[in-house]
Structure formats: C-alpha cells, structure tokens
C-alpha cells in the first residue's frame, strides 16, 4: 500500500495518487507525483519510487512524459544511456505540449547525469540546447536551476568568466523560491569560482555562507562533504598545507562512514596531492592508488586522467621523468579540452625540466589563450612566469621580462605567494632568480622563497651572492638570510617536514616544551649525520627528544613508524655526537643519565618533563 511509504511524498498527496491509480487515471497520478517529488531525491527514496512506478501499466509509459521522466531517475542509477534516451523522449513530448518548464527540468537531469560521469562535453551539448529555453521558461525556480547548471559546467569548458554571473542569477532565483539546498550548492560553487580566480577572501565568505546553511538546515552527508572539500582546497590554494591536510583527512574519514562515494574519491586524490606538496611522496603514491581503486568501485573512469596527470607530476618531482612523461601522455588522451589544456602545461614543465625549451614554449603558448579566454587569471599568470623562464633560457631577454612582470604583477595584486597546480620548487626558484636579477617584485620573491619553496631554493639562489651586479648580490643575500631565519623558526620548520609521524612527534615535543623551542637552531646544528651535515635531521631530533623522555626503543620505533634496528642506529649516533662511548660506563642507565645531564646543561630540554620510565 502507498500509505506504507510516507517519505516519498506528503501523506495527502499519496492518498490522492492512490485514488487516481484505483480509477486508472494514470496521467493525473503521474502528474501529481512529478509536481510533488523532492528535487534532491535521497537514495532510500529510489526504492519507494520504483515500487510506485510498478503500479502503472507498461503501456502507460509510451506517451506520458511524466512517467518517462520518473523512470529516467531510476535508470540513471544503473544505465546512463537508457536514462538519457527516456529523458530525450520526455523532452520531445513536453515540447509538443508546449510545456517548456518541464522540458527544462528534463534537461537538468540530462546535464546532471553526464556531469556526475565527468562527461562534461556531452553535458555541455545539452546545456546548449537548454539555453534556447531560457526565454520560454515561466517558473523562476526552473530558470534558476538552469542557470546553476550553466554555472557548474562553464569552468570545465573554458568559460570561467561567465560562471559567476550565471551563479549569481541562480542564487537570486533560489532565494525567491526559498530553495535552501540549491542556495547552499550555489554558495559552494561561488566559493570554488572565486578561489580559481584568486579572490580568496570572497571564496572564504561564500564558503562560510554555505557552511552556515548546511549547519542550520542539516542538509545531509553530501552537503557536509562539499563543505569539507571546499575548505581543504581553499587552504591548499593559500599554501596552508597543514590545514588542508586536516580538512582532507576529515573528509576522507567522514565519506568512508557516510558512503558518499564520489567525495571519497575526491578526498583520496586531494590527499595524494597534499602529501605530494609536503614532499611525502610514498604516502602520496598510496593515496593515488586508493583513488584508482575508488574510480573502479564508483565506475567513474572518466576521472582517471586527473589521477594520471597528478601521479605523473609526482614522478616529475622525484626526478623520474620517463614515468612522468608516460602518465602525462596517457592523461592527454582525454577528450575534454579543458583537461587537455591543463595537462599540456604539465607536459610543458616536464620539457623545461629536461631542457627541451622549444616544445615547452609551444605548449605554453598554445595553452595561454585558452586560459585568457576563460578568465582564469591565476593560470594565465603562472603560465607567464614559466614562459619568462623559457624565453630567458633561449636568450630572448626583453620578451622574457614582459612575461615575468605580467605574472608577478598579477600575483602581487592578489597577494598570492604560491599556487597549487604546476608547482615545481626547482622551476619556481629559477623564476624567482630571474625576478631578483631584474628587480621585479623582490618582496614577493622573498615571501615565496621563505614560506613556500624553502631549502630547495638555496642551490639555485646561492650563486647569485657572487653576482657581478652588487644590487643582485644584495638581493640574493637578503633572501637567503631570510630563508635561514625562517628555517630556524620551529613552526615554519615543522611545516616542511614531509614525514608525518616524525612531524607529529616534533610538534608534541616542541609544542609542549619537552624540547626548548629557542634552542632548536643549536640543536639542529648539533644533531646531524654524515649524510646530512648541511641540513638538520628531523628523525634524529625526534629520537633524541623521545629517548630523553624515557621512551624505550620499541616505543620510539612505534611512534616514528621505523624499524627498531634503525632507531638503535640513531641512538648510537646521538651518543657518538655527545662523545659518550659505551666503554666509559658501567651500565646503560649511567650512560643515558649522563646524556640527559649534558642535554640539560646545554639548554636543550624544556621545563616540562615527561618520564616514560626509569633510565
């Protein structure tokens, strides 16, 4: 009985539908269902809808667009092509009736279905058909949904500059019709669009408005996943990798429990990218593998090119250019033009890394007009920077200066010091070196090197200290001195430690004053190994701190996720550094106590002490 399924439609509507079915008034029953069906149908409702449609005779579907539309909603879960066929039949029938509002609703479903499959080109073809209906739609809510579909698709089609206008029109329509969930979706979309345009303050404001709607109206699991996903990406764009990782890990955990499969896939790819940005390449690779598994589970194979190109970039960062080239070329088989332009830039930068300047220039120049037309100013600025380096290396210095100035002008105007895609420390440092020589936005370069490039900049910029131009030499010394000071800042230093277990242990030791933060520069100079005399060894410092807190070998190995034999070697190194040979002591306890006393005398240990056991 329909009365046993009260969630699909309001009880009074259910009773009326039941009456129409008993009277064999199938057209009236179908119309009533369509007019009262929730727009965002929760998954449990699909079973109820299937049971309801089973009450209609098979021949009733042939000429009834309402039934065809309802049937397509079910088919979209299992058979996209058949669902599209039913929707196109429904559109034809609705148009014959002059019912343009319902035709538009069917187009929404077509577009949404292909969007979910990451088939943006097909979705856009139906958008073009739907755009013809804009002036014939009489229901503001329906018109607003079409604007939202246009706003969602435009960024993937190189029409970013049009998206915000469509989204604002959609938002106004949803406010008039009091459609809370669509208002929420539009705020999140506007946050994404402003983030891509480099307007991070507006992106944060739109995200906050969406977050408040989600919290106040309890909009469900997918809405919360959208908030976490947007927050993680915004933090990544701003260069706050620690915050981005926290949000992405929250997203991964939440979507696993809630079963929001598509955002589970998004979180896996995002975590791969974030660990790659931190330099934790093995962890990044594991997340890319997880993303591939999720693609197969969710049958979203059109998402594979994104995984290929990002994993390819991982190989580029580790110096395996053959593996990188193989994956990037695989990604370039995508039929999506927007993806192809982005992947061409990855290929261009790979050519730059291998000193193939002419093919790199051709790829960069072919991509730049696409981003200029789309309104993606951040991507345009970044391409300008890499073009400047390419032109400089081929001795076209005047033209290189023009592109260098244009790229840094835009970044400075928008207070942007890093970018999430196409970031390679070696190449970015080369660009910064050009800026120091030319005197272009030197303060921006200082911030970029100290906060976001880090120690990778030193080999490239150090030779500039001996530059024949004293002004260039002075700029280089200033940047490198600033970099050294930031490396001595414990919080800044921690953000650049790629090994997650080691970083967490050091955060605990320094944050709770088990090791003194003000003595960290001296401790880093003290605790080095033969292989790392030119830079601090975070693992050695972490072992030192835990060992002097009383942790035994097994406990240290567990916390740092290393083999006990490796930890034993680190402890031996520490004793060697402090010149405490075992033959001078009658027991390990006495030797360890002497190490503790020396560490205290040199001021390495803080006022807070947490002994884990006697030594």
How can the largest sheet be summarized?
none
Structural class: mainly alpha
- So how many helices? 32
Give the N-to-C terminal Cα separation. Answer: 75 Å
User: Total number of β-strand segments?
Assistant: 0
Shape: globular
Mean pLDDT: 88
Low-confidence runs (pLDDT<50, min 5 residues)?
1-6
Oligomer: single chain
User: Roughly what percent helix?
Assistant: over 70%
Give a description of the structure.
With 615 residues, the protein is an all-alpha fold. Among the domains are: 371-491; 502-601, no CATH class. It contains 32 helices and no strands. Helix 4 (65-75) runs antiparallel to helix 5, helix 12 (221-237) packs antiparallel against helix 13 and helix 20 (377-393) runs antiparallel to helix 21 (397-413). The chain is globular, with a radius of gyration of 30 Å.
Structural key phrases:
615 residues; mainly alpha; 32 helices; globular; disordered N terminus
Q: Can I get a quick summary?
A:
This protein has helices spanning 11-22, 26-36, 43-53, 65-75, 80-97, 100-116, 120-131, 140-153, 160-176, 180-196, 200-217, 221-237, 241-258, 261-278, 281-298, 304-318, 321-331, 337-353, 357-374, 377-393, 397-413, 425-438, 442-453, 458-461, 470-488, 490-495, 500-511, 520-526, 538-547, 553-560, 564-577, 588-601.
């Amino acid at each position: 009985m329909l009365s046993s399924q009260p969630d699909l439609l309001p009880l009074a509507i259910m009773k009326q539908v039941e009456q129409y079915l008993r009277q064999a008034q199938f057209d009236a029953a179908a119309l009533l269902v369509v007019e009262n069906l929730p727009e965002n149908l929760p998954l449990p409702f699909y079973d109820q809808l299937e049971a309801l449609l089973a009450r209609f005779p098979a021949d009733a579907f042939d000429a009834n667009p309402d039934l065809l539309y309802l049937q397509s909603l079910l088919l979209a879960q299992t058979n996209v092509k058949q669902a599209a066929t039913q929707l196109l039949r429904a559109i034809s029938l609705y148009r014959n009736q002059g019912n343009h509002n319902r035709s538009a609703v069917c187009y929404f479903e077509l577009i949404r279905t292909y969007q979910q499959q990451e088939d943006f080109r097909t979705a856009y073809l139906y958008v073009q058909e739907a755009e013809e209906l804009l002036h014939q739609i009489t229901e503001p809510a329906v018109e607003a949904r079409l604007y939202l579909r246009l706003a969602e698709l435009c960024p993937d089609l190189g029409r970013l500059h049009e998206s915000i206008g469509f989204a604002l029109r959609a938002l106004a329509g949803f406010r008039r019709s009091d459609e809370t969930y669509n208002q929420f979706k539009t705020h999140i979309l506007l946050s994404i669009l402003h983030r891509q345009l480099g307007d991070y303050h507006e992106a944060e404001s739109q995200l906050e408005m969406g977050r408040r709607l989600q919290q106040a109206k309890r909009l469900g699991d997918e809405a919360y996943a959208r908030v976490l996903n947007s927050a993680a990406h915004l933090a990544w764009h701003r260069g706050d990798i620690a915050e981005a990782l926290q949000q992405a890990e929250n997203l991964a955990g939440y979507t696993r429990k809630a079963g929001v499969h598509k955002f589970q896939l998004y979180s896996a790819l995002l975590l791969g990218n974030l660990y790659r940005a931190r330099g934790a390449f093995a962890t990044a690779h594991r997340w890319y593998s997880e993303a591939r598994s999720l693609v197969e589970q969710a049958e979203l194979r059109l998402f594979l090119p994104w995984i290929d190109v990002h994993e390819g970039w991982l190989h580029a960062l580790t110096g395996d250019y053959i593996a990188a080239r193989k994956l990037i070329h695989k990604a370039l088989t995508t039929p999506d033009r927007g993806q192809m332009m982005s992947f061409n830039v990855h290929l261009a930068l790979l050519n730059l890394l291998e000193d193939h300047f002419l093919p790199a220039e051709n790829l960069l120049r072919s991509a730049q007009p696409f981003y200029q037309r789309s309104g993606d100013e951040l991507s345009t600025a970044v391409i300008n920077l890499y073009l400047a380096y390419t032109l400089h290396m081929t001795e076209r210095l005047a033209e290189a200066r023009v592109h260098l100035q244009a790229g840094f002008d835009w970044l400075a105007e928008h207070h942007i010091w890093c970018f999430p895609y196409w970031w390679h420390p070696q190449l970015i440092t080369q660009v910064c070196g050009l800026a120091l020589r030319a005197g272009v936005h030197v303060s921006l370069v200082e911030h970029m090197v100290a906060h976001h490039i880090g120690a990778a900049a030193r080999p490239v910029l150090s030779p500039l200290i001996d530059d024949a131009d004293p002004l260039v030499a002075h700029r280089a010394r200033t940047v490198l001195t600033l970099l050294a000071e930031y490396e001595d800042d414990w919080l800044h230093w921690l953000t650049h430690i790629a090994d997650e277990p080691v970083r967490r242990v050091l955060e605990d030791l320094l944050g709770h004053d088990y090791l003194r933060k003000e003595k960290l520069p001296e401790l880093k100079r003290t605790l080095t190994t033969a292989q790392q005399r030119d830079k601090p060894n975070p693992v050695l410092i972490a072992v030192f701190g835990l060992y002097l807190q009383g942790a035994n070998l097994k406990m240290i190995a567990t916390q740092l996720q290393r083999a006990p034999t490796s930890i034993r070697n680190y402890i031996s190194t520490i004793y060697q550094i402090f010149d405490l040979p075992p033959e001078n002591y009658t027991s390990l306890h006495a030797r360890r106590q002497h190490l503790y006393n020396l560490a205290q005398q040199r001021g390495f240990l803080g006022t807070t002490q947490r002994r884990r056991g006697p030594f």
